[in-house]
Design goal:
With about 300 residues, this protein is mostly helical. Helices cover about 85% and strands about 0% of the residues. The mean pLDDT is about 80.
Length: about 300
């Protein structure tokens, strides 16, 4: 009887520690609840997220909820002691280089972009330690490839020749031990950071249950973008952020994307328009990654 009571107390203390760690970060807590809900729905109704409608909703969320966090880049550059015009010049120069690379060596740029994305996304998990953070970021991108190999290869085949897409996806699947090692690391990290470890684990598991575009939208919107915006607002008073300017940049980006999607729908040329939209996202994301890195180093 005493042993049962002690076990109950220990379990209650463990649960309390878990909840305390989970809700120490509101973004991680919100993501955990949403991810658990969607993963549960995906397991209960496997075909619910496989429709074109679900994919369209995910794309809209990425564009409307996820991408606008990059509109704060000029503010971040100025917070990093870059004058406005110099910040705009740096942003434009990196975007120009990215555009030239996209037109001349798109496959190489995609590979570089994916590698930089791992570095960039690893900042979301840095509280877990550098090595685990990189493993988590890589696992979030790898899991959809491992679980939906044919689907992801079909997407990559729209961006590059089919033989190269098969090579890229085939090479990516060789990194499955990273996912396994990251899972083991998260199990250990859960002893000290249970909430963050749980949220990270769910971000990876989502890639195995939900279609790739839905899983990415979940992570990108509910964790990466939300966490970035929260960090920016914590770094400076709202009145100094320049929300009007940020809204203008966001509106310009969304208008350009909407124009491309409209042409896509009108023309019916799926692969060329996928390449155009993806190319635009890469070109805009490269300077975003550079400015965020500068801000974090100088912050």
């Amino acid at each position: 009887m005493v042993d049962r009571a002690a076990a109950s107390v220990a379990w209650g203390a463990s649960l309390g520690t878990m909840l305390q760690g989970l809700f120490a970060d509101r973004v991680a807590a919100t993501f955990t609840a949403l991810a658990a809900l969607l993963i549960g729905a995906g397991l209960a109704f496997p075909n619910a997220f496989a429709s074109d409608a679900a994919g369209l909703v995910a794309l809209i969320l990425i564009a409307v909820v996820g991408l606008p966090h990059g509109a704060l880049d000029i503010h971040l550059a100025m917070r990093s002691r870059l004058p406005r015009m110099q910040a705009l010049g740096v942003y434009g120069l990196i975007a120009l280089v990215g555009g030239i690379a996209w037109l001349s060596v798109p496959v190489l740029l995609i590979l570089v972009f994916l590698a930089l994305s791992v570095w960039h996304f690893a900042q979301d998990f840095k509280a877990l330690g550098r090595l685990t953070a990189f493993g988590a970021a890589l696992s979030v991108l790898l899991m959809p490839i491992l679980a939906f190999t044919a689907e992801t290869q079909a997407i990559f085949a729209m961006l590059m020749p089919e033989s190269q897409a098969a090579l890229v996806i085939g090479t990516a699947t060789l990194f499955w031990p990273v996912v396994a090692a990251t899972g083991a690391a998260l199990a250990l990290k859960s002893l000290k950071r249970p909430g963050l470890a749980l949220a990270t684990g769910l971000a990876i598991i989502a890639g195995a249950v939900l279609p790739p575009i839905v899983a990415f939208a979940l992570y990108f919107c509910a964790w990466h973008s939300a966490g970035h915006i929260r960090a920016v607002f914590a770094d400076a008073p709202v009145r100094r952020i320049g929300l009007g300017e940020a809204a203008l940049y966001a509106a310009m980006t969304l208008s350009l994307l909407a124009g491309l999607v409209a042409v896509w729908s009108w023309s019916g040329m799926e692969a060329p328009m996928v390449r155009a939209v993806f190319g635009l996202l890469v070109i805009l994301t490269l300077p975003h990654m550079a400015i965020v890195e500068l801000w974090q180093r100088r912050g």
